C-alpha cells in the first residue's frame, strides 16, 4: 500500500524496542493504566489470548489433565516450606498486610506461582498408589514484582496456565515433563508458527526448587532469545517438605515425584517479535481473532454492502471472518488491518460482483489474487494454510540465519560484539564459565539442546573438557 | 439404593448448613486450605464452573460484548475517585503494602470489582459518539475481605465475570441493564434449572455507586433467598468522577451513561441448595460435567468392559458420558455418582448385553427404565431433556409453596417466626420501614419485582400509602 496510509510506527531497524511498543499499542492489543507495570489487555489482544488458550487447553485435556482453581493468596509460612523455592521467589512477591481495617497476624503474598498450594492440597488427597497420577492444571493470574516491565514480555501481573502433577516414580515424572514440553512446542510451532529449540536449562537458570527444567527457546526478529515455555521435574523435594506420601503396591510408604509447567501471555510478545514487520502485526491464521477481513469497495453503490455481508455469512463456515462496513475510506481500512496483522484481506466492489470474483491480499507476502467466488471457500482454506506454513518457514530461515557457532572464547566474544542471535558453543558445566560469559558478552545460557552437536571437545570459555553443547544468547 | 452404600452426610432436615458442607466436600467440589476463607475448586467443581462459564460467555458474546482483561490491583487514589463506591468497598478490601523488600509509596488494593479500572480506560479510548457503545466484559478473580465465609456462597476470593459498558444515552444504558439481567435469568432458568424473580433492589440494597440495581433472586430448599446475579445502571456518576466524555452527533460534549453487571461462582451454591437432596448433589443435565455415567455390572465377565467402553464412544455423540471401569463394587459406584449428582446412570451387564438392552436410572426421580440399545441415543437425549424440565418444575413448585403474602406487620412477623420463604408485601418506600422489618424479622428486601402485584394499598410496616410490592426474605 501507499505510504500515505501507514500509521506512524517506528521502523524495526531504527529502534526495535520502540517498534514493539508502537505495535502493541497501535494495533489495539493493550493499553496502559495507573497500575505500574500492569497492562490492560484490550479486546483484540484478549481474543488472541483466548485462541491460544483454547488451543493449549484442549491439548492439556487430551493428555489427561484436569483443570482446578487454587487461592490467589499464599500465607508466608506456607511459601517458606520449600527452601530453594522461597529463596527464588521472596524478592519478587507482592505482600498483603491488611484486610479491610484490620492488620493481618501473618502477611500473605499474592501467588507468584502455586507449587506450595498444590502441595498442601496433594497431601490431603493422595494416600495410595491408586490416587496416582494426579494431573492438575490451573488457568490463573500471577504476580511478580518486576522493576522494569514491558507489555506481554515482563509485566507485574500476567496470565498463564500452570500444570502441577504427582507421580509414583521418577521415570513417570520425567515422561510427563517431556510430554508437556512437547505440547508447548506443538502450540508454538503449529499454532503460532514459532520454531523452537528444545533443551534443558543449566542449574543456574533452572526453576527455584526443581530437579531440572526443560525449556523451549525461540529467536526474535532482533536476534534476541525468548524463553517460551518451561517444564520442571521437581523430584521429591516439595513432596518431602510437605509430606506428600503414598502407599505403593507393596505396602511401602513413598514420596511422590512431581512436575510443574507453565505457559504465559508472554508468548504473545514472542509472536509479535517473530512475525511482525514495519507495517505492524502479522498474526498466523491459527491464532488470528480475524482470519479474513472483508473490505467493501465503493460500498455506497447499491448492493455492495449487502453482497459483502452475505459473503461474510458464507465464509464463516470455513474461517473467522469479519467485515468493516464503516464509512472510513478503503485505504484507511487496508492500513488498519495490516497493522492488526489480519492474515487475509478480501476486497469486493461493484466490478468484482459483476465478474463473480473477489480480490484476496495476503498480509505475509502482499500477494494479490483474483478468485472466482465459485471456489472461494476452498481457495481461502488453502491460502490460510499456506500463510501458516510460510510464516513458520520464514521464521525458521531467519533463526538459521541468526544462529552461529563458536569454538573458543575470542570467537564467542567477537560474535556477540557484532551480532545478536543464538551461538552454539561447548561448555564444561561450571557455573564460573557461565558467569564469565554473561559478564563479558551479555549472553546467558538459553539451554542445553536435546539435540546435542559435538562442536568441539573443549569448553568455549575455559578450554577444559566440554560436557554439553549450549545455546547462548542475549535474551528477553 | 440401600442405605448401606450411602456416604455419611447429614440429612437436610437435621442441619441444612451441615448438609451443605458435607455435600460440597464429599462430592469433591472443593477442598479447604490454609488460606482462610478461600477455597480450592477441585476438578469436578471446576468442570461445573467451566460449563456455566461457557454457557454465559457465549451469550455475552452473542449480545455483542467483547472480553478484556484489567489489572488485579487498584491504587488507593484511583479507588477513591467515586465517593459512594469507595465507601461501599473500602471496609472489605485486601491491601498490598509491600512489593518484594520495598514498601509502596501508595498502597494498592486487590480489586473487589473493577469499575474504576474500566473508567480510567474508557476515558482514554472514548472521544466521539462513534466510539459508543463500548460493551466490555471480563472473566476474573476478585477479593472481598469477608469475616464469615462458606464455600461458593461467600468466599474471600471468588471467580466471576463483570460486564462494564458505556452508552450515549440513559435509555440505551437502561436497555443494556435489562438485557443482561435477562441473560442471567436465561442461564439460571434454562441451564441451571433455577427459577428466578426479576426485580429492582431498594436504594439500601443497591450497588455502591449505582443509580439503580436490577437483580434476580432465587429461593433455596431451606426457604432462604439467594441473590443470583445483578445488573446495575450506573448513570453518569462514574463518568463525571472520571471525566468520560464524548462529542455527540451535534458536536456537544456529554458524559457517557454506564452499566455494570456480575455473575459469580456463588451460583454453584444456589444450584446445590435448590436441587440437592439427602443423597447429595443433583446437577441439571445442561450444567453437568458428566451427564451419563456408565457402570458396568459383573465387569470381570468376558466382554462386559469392552462393550461398556464401546457404548461410551457411541453415546459421546449425544451426551457427556463417562465410565467407571474401576474394580470398586457397583453399589459403591451407584452411591458415588448419586452423591455427585450425575443426572443419569447407565448399568450394563452380561444379561443386558445378551438382551440388547441397558438399564437407565434417573438421579432426580430414581426411576429405572430398561431400554433397547437400538434406540439408546434418542432415548438418552429425551430423558436428559425431561430431567432438565422436571428439575425446573420441581424447583418452581417448591418456590411457590414457600412464597407467602402478608397484609400487615403482625402477619409478616408471624410468617417469619414460623416459616422461611419469600413473603410478598407492600412497602411505602421508606428506609426506616426496611430497617425495622429487618430488625424484627431478620428478613431483608430482596427486590421490588418487575411483575408488581397490588396486595394492598398500605405499607406492611407503617401502614402509610404503599408505593411498591416487595419480596422479603431471609437471605444468604
TrEMBL record, chains A, B:
Tell me which UniProt keywords the record has, alphabetically: Aminoacyl-tRNA synthetase, ATP-binding, Cytoplasm, Ligase, Nucleotide-binding, Protein biosynthesis
Domain Aminoacyl-transfer RNA synthetases class-II family profile, residue spans: 36-284
What does the record give as EC number? 6.1.1.15
Specify whether tRNA-binding is a keyword of the entry.
no
UniProt cross-references to InterPro entries, sorted A to Z: aa-tRNA-synt_IIb, aa-tRNA-synth_II, aa-tRNA-synth_II/BPL/LPL, Anticodon-bd, Anticodon-bd_dom_sf, Pro-tRNA-ligase_IIa, Pro-tRNA-ligase_IIa_arc-type, Pro-tRNA_ligase_II_C
Q: What is catalyzed by this enzyme?
A: tRNA(Pro) + L-proline + ATP = L-prolyl-tRNA(Pro) + AMP + diphosphate
- One MF term from GO for this chain? proline-tRNA ligase activity
Q: List the subcellular locations.
A: Cytoplasm
Q: Which Pfam families match?
A: HGTP_anticodon, ProRS-C_1, tRNA-synt_2b
- Superkingdom, taxonomy of origin: Bacteria
Q: Name one GO biological process term.
A: prolyl-tRNA aminoacylation
Stated role: Catalyzes the attachment of proline to tRNA(Pro) in a two-step reaction: proline is first activated by ATP to form Pro-AMP and then transferred to the acceptor end of tRNA(Pro).
Q: Which PANTHER family match?
A: BIFUNCTIONAL GLUTAMATE_PROLINE--TRNA LIGASE, PROLYL-TRNA SYNTHETASE
- Domain comment (free text): Consists of three domains: the N-terminal catalytic domain, the anticodon-binding domain and the C-terminal extension.
NCBIfam families per UniProt: proS_fam_I (TIGR00408)
Question: What is the protein's name according to its record?
Answer: Proline--tRNA ligase
**Natural source organism:** Cytobacillus praedii
List the lineage, top down: Bacteria, Bacillati, Bacillota, Bacilli, Bacillales
Amino acid at each position: 500500500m501507499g505510504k500515505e496510509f501507514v500509521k506512524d510506527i517506528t521502523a524495526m531497524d531504527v529502534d526495535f524496542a520502540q517498534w514493539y511498543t508502537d505495535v502493541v499499542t497501535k494495533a489495539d492489543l493493550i493499553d496502559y493504566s495507573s497500575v505500574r507495570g500492569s497492562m490492560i489487555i484490550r479486546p483484540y489482544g484478549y481474543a488472541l489470548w483466548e485462541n491460544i488458550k483454547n488451543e493449549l487447553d484442549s491439548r492439556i485435556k487430551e493428555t489427561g489433565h484436569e483443570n482446578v482453581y487454587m487461592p490467589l493468596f499464599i500465607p508466608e509460612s506456607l511459601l517458606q516450606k520449600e527452601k530453594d523455592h522461597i529463596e527464588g521467589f521472596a524478592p519478587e512477591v507482592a505482600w498483603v498486610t491488611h484486610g479491610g481495617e484490620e492488620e493481618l497476624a501473618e502477611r500473605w503474598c499474592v501467588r507468584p506461582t502455586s507449587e506450595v498450594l498444590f502441595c498442601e492440597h496433594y497431601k490431603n488427597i493422595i494416600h495410595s498408589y491408586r490416587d496416582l497420577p494426579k494431573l492438575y492444571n490451573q488457568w490463573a493470574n500471577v504476580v511478580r514484582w518486576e522493576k522494569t516491565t514491558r507489555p506481554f514480555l515482563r509485566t507485574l501481573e500476567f496470565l498463564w496456565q500452570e500444570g502441577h502433577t504427582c507421580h509414583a516414580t521418577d521415570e513417570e515424572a520425567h515422561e510427563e515433563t517431556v510430554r508437556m514440553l512437547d505440547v508447548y512446542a506443538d502450540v508454538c510451532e503449529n499454532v503460532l508458527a514459532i520454531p523452537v529449540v528444545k533443551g534443558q536449562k543449566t542449574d543456574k537458570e533452572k526453576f527455584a526448587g526443581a530437579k531440572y527444567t526443560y525449556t523451549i527457546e525461540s529467536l526474535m526478529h532482533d536476534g534476541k532469545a525468548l524463553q517460551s515455555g518451561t517444564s520442571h521435574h521437581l523430584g521429591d523435594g516439595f513432596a518431602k517438605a510437605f509430606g506428600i506420601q503414598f502407599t505403593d503396591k507393596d505396602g511401602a510408604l513413598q514420596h511422590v515425584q512431581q512436575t510443574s509447567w507453565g505457559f504465559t501471555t508472554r508468548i504473545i510478545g514472542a509472536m509479535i517479535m517473530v512475525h511482525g514487520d514495519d507495517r505492524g502485526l502479522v498474526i498466523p491464521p491459527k491464532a488470528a481473532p480475524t482470519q479474513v477481513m472483508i473490505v467493501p469497495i465503493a460500498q455506497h453503490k447499491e448492493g455492495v454492502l449487502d453482497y459483502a455481508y452475505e459473503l461474510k455469512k458464507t465464509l464463516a463456515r470455513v474461517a473467522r471472518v469479519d467485515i468493516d462496513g464503516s464509512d472510513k475510506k478503503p485505504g484507511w481500512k487496508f492500513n488498519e488491518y495490516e497493522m492488526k496483522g489480519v492474515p487475509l484481506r478480501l476486497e469486493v466492489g461493484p466490478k468484482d460482483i459483476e465478474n463473480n470474483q473477489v480480490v484476496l491480499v495476503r498480509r505475509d507476502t502482499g500477494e494479490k489474487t483474483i478468485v472466482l467466488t465459485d471456489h472461494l471457500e476452498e481457495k481461502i482454506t488453502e491460502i490460510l494454510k499456506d500463510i501458516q506454513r510460510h510464516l513458520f518457514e520464514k521464521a525458521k530461515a531467519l533463526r538459521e540465519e541468526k544462529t552461529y557457532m563458536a569454538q573458543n572464547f575470542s570467537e564467542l566474544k567477537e560474535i556477540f560484539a557484532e551480532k545478536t542471535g543464538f551461538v552454539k558453543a561447548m561448555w564444561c558445566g561450571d557455573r564460573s564459565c557461565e558467569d564469565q560469559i554473561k559478564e563479558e558478552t551479555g549472553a546467558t545460557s538459553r539451554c542445553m539442546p536435546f539435540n546435542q552437536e559435538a562442536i568441539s571437545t573443549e569448553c568455549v570459555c575455559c578450554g577444559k573438557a566440554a560436557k554439553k553443547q549450549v545455546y547462548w544468547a542475549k535474551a528477553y
